[in-house]
Amino acid sequence: MMDIAPDMPVQYIKGVGPRRARLLNKLDIYTLADVIYHFPRDYEDRTEIMPISRWQSGQVVNIVCKIAGPPRRVKPRARLIISKIPIQDGTSSAYAVWYNQKFIEDRFVPGKWYFMRGKVNIGYGEIQLLNPQWEEISSPDERGNEGLVPIYPSTADMSQKILRNIVKNVLELVKGQWEEYLPIELRKRYDLAEINFAINNIHFPVNARSLNIARRRLAFDELFCMQLGFYSIKGKNDVQKVGAPFRIHDIGLEAFIRRLPFALTGAQQRVLDEILADMSNTRPMNRLVQGDVGCGKTILAVLALYVAASNCYQGAMMAPTEVLAQQHFQTLQKFFDGYDISIALLSGNMGENKKNEVLEAIKDGRIDVVVGTHAVIQDNVEFHRLGLVITDEQHRFGVRQRAVLEKKGGNPHVLVMSATPIPRSMALIFYGDLDVSIVDEMPPGRQQVETFFIPPSMRDRLYSFINQEISNGHQAYIICPLVEQSDAIDALSAQELYDQLKEKGIFGDSIGLIHGQMSANDKNEVMEAFKNGQISVLIGTTVIEVGVDVPNATVMVVENAERFGLAQLHQLRGRVGRGQHKSYCFLISNAGNSDAGRRLKIMTKLHDGFKIAEQDMQIRGPGQLLGLQQHGISELKLADIFSDIALLKQSKEAVQMLADGIMILDQRSKLLLEQRIKRQFLNNIDEITFN
Ligand code: ADP
Ligand code: MG
Hints:
Layout: H1 17-26, H2 32-36, E1 42-45, E2 60-67, E3 72-77, E4 80-88, E5 93-99, E6 113-123, E7 126-137, E8 148-151, H3 160-174, H4 184-190, H5 195-203, H6 208-239, H7 253-258, H8 266-279, E9 286-291, H9 298-310, E10 314-319, H10 322-335, E11 343-346, H11 352-363, E12 369-373, H12 374-380, E13 386-391, H13 399-407, E14 413-417, H14 424-430, E15 435-439, E16 450-454, H15 459-471, E17 475-479, H16 494-504, E18 511-514, H17 520-531, E19 537-540, E20 553-558, H18 566-573, E21 584-588, H19 595-605, H20 609-620, H21 622-626, H22 645-659, H23 667-680
Parallel strand pairs: 5-7, 9-14, 9-15, 10-12, 10-13, 11-12, 13-14, 16-21, 17-19, 17-20, 18-19, 20-21
Antiparallel strand pairs: 1-8, 2-4, 2-6, 3-4, 4-5, 6-7
The structure holds adenosine-5'-diphosphate and magnesium ion (MG).
């Protein structure tokens, strides 16, 4: 045991105090442990010191110097004060120069050593180092551990130097006594550094090699803890039993499938078999279905609901938007027409009376299938006998959501339909608590959506193309990033574009507007009109990003396309090309050849959602794409799921060894790991199981 408390408030750390404590809190640093786990985002290489005699204008240089004389102050014009500190390093002399920071003049003590880093400016017969970062050092040799100095995520009020000193003080306080929580056999097996070596060297690396060793150990911890967390959730789920396994034979399922307007694809059939195997088990299903947009995931949900209802259990289908909930409701009505299965839609803004009636009917079991948004179903509904929960177009089934479901009693089967397909190897990591099925085949007859990246100046030509499509009986979407015009952001709003197009009459009268700020009823009316062809061009925001299925639409236009992520654009593009007709996607942007422009060009070449998601993750990071934080898991700070594949495999293997009892943790390690895992899951997980 160590005599320092990891949860000691930062305020009591040497050099902190109440004011700095508040600044640290802003960085989510509250305790001593938080300081230790506030890892540098980068390192500054101070290895190379450049003598003044070799400086060149425009270069960024490191220098170790002494003060050569008193400061000089120049006031070339009103409100401009230039402070110049003469410095020398034995090879030559120069000035360190600051603008409007006259307090700096008193900071330097003649005779002491300083490290400085800044940009060189040579001119007017002077050699200058402009606005350098600086630090007093005790000798010319001391410039921070062979020169690798940490740069922390920080705010403007908290300088790197102060933050670095606080970390230094904490590490001095810890004195190599931070408690190890990985058993020695595990560290040996995977060649992982001891924890004190790791935390010391991640902050103040002795050299590049020890930094790598430290980073590897701590990245392993991140991946290991994340997977242990998932394993705990899954393990808990594994031991839970459903009331009775569902019957899957003799319930007319084969006949139901035969009566569908299409034959299932091979992939749909395979995934259906996996779902049926789960549902006929006493252990609740906990399955994620992945598949590219348009591969036909909805029908799998329909079939699962049919099985639940035929077993006299209720099913709930949750969608991320009202529009999609409404669409699912209609789809279910269509497929269940002629069967004795009652379906209800729960909407956020249906009248109180109507709503209470529906809630009552769900509670006493008169309703078999409930459709609604996540919020609606989670908040209000009491079930009679809930047997199946489906969440559609959700990145992952959040830790919190499961807790909510458990409170509703029973252990329903859970099926998650993912909006963002990711490669299986990654799915195994990020959905470690779920079984994963992949629908890797498109229904027959689909054509690739031809995709173009065009500048706004081509809008008129685009509009005549759309009119041509309309005259062929097709329809189009135009998506804008905003609902209303905003002064702060220079992007086209849906409302504004709608007004413009309406006024100019470019598409005649058959245009519609849809966005999230409209009432559910208004949205439904517009969607209805679009579906039955009264509206030819639908202008909207991303409320129609996911799930919407109108096979007659053949054109998708995205305004200010640079403002969307790749996976999101792929989802939007997935709204067209759903029928037999040739379809087109136009990404409008000024981005040209900038980074954003290159990103958009990827869309014109790639059509595979898995590959696009991979690119998007490399650009934006996996946490953001998968919405980890939204789902109660913190972002990975050190581990990189692309370059750390080997580490990923090892951490997964380690979790498995614990699960199988091949490796055993002592009580103390368990306790410490538990704390770490809870921390990583932002305290959304209460029980950790190791085997
Ligand atoms: P997503 O996987 O994106 O949710 P949907 O379930 O909305 O896709 O299906 C897209 C379209 O493909 C729908 O119009 C659906 O009726 C149709 N579809 C689904 N499966 C098949 C199939 N096996 N053959 C032909 N069309 C299908
Ligand atoms: Mg869908």
